[in-house]
Amino acid sequence: MHLGQSIHDYIRNSARAFGTISKMISQHQLRTIIFYEWRQGKSAREATDVINSTLGEGTVHRSTVSRWHNRFASGDISLEDKVRSGRARNIDEDELLRAVTANPEATTRELSTILGCSHSTIENFLHVHGYRKVLSRWIPHRLTDAQKQARVNICESLLFQPNRKDFLADLVTGDESWILYDYRKRTTVWLPRGVEPPTQPKPNPHQRKHLLSVWWDMRGVVYYELLAAGRTVTASIYIDQLQHLADAIREKRPRRSKVYLQHDNARLHVASETRQKIAELGWHPVAHPPYSPDLAPSDYHLFQPLKHHLRGREFKTYSDLKFAVNDFFESQSPDFWAKGISDSPKRWEKVINLCGEYIVDI
Q1: What are the φ and ψ backbone dihedral angles of 52, each rounded to 5 degrees?
Q2: How many other C-beta atoms lie within 10 A of the C-beta of residue 51?
Q3: Could you tell me if residue 122 is inside a domain?
Q4: Residue 240 lies inside a defined structural domain of this protein
Q5: Residues 17 and 65 in one domain
Q6: Hey, which bits of 78-170 come out as E strands?
Q7: Nearest 5 degrees, angle CA 244-CA 247-CA 252?
Q8: The whole model's pTM is what?
């Protein structure tokens, strides 16, 4: 049996028995595997991919494999840390902090290999100094400097405009979001030991859905549509919706003399025929920076509570789904709608203070 076959058989058999076994592999065993992959002529990248695919993602970083490959190529095939004069090496705090800053995704095992000390020492040091391993947070888009500046400029113009109180009172904000038929999630249940858990079918990833278009102000929903299944909004449909919105404003807000319409920069919202319709209605479009859902009240205030209201439920018909959406709208207090609009200046100010970066709500 070849050495390579023995090593790979060991890895496969261990992985089959224990799943991800990166935590079971000692530092010396890991270096042996790195050495073997180097002897097979694999590049540092190829060796890293093989090891991580077999032992589990994050077992070793490419920079670590590359460093050992360079060491082997120099003629030093020892798998031990280099001997230093004097006492055994203590952790170099500055070097560790530099390593963490350079690669925040590094595992403690990778850091221990780089610094030549145990990963428990690394863990203890990071814990004492207030470090913790957390997931990165999603943002809608990687903003360019120009886009950040546009966000700042528009937020400043909105924040410092005269008669801001009247502006917010006359603001009508609109947006779209997909509404699904099935909002059930896998549930956890308490069961006696040895009792099999109940089964639950997976939701259909291609299930039916409807696009919700909604416009609202400080007093509540003015107008909404739940489009037919699979149908999306085009410029011509949006123009018809704006006319329906105008009719609803005349009926529900008869004393309103001004309308400041806020919507995002979707192509259908800025199409020439759409802008012409808005001008025809005598409305004032509100500037909205590109890629900025964190500044759209429907995105940061309305849609998440709506989806929470639908969570855990499955709807059989369009009527049932529309009833549930309407029930959510009608069940919200006046303060809910007022807060969604009145919080806008705080968010404009925050974007300015963040120099255009996203507001990341937790």
Answers
A1: -70, -35
A2: 22
A3: yes
A4: yes
A5: yes
A6: none
A7: 120
A8: 0.64
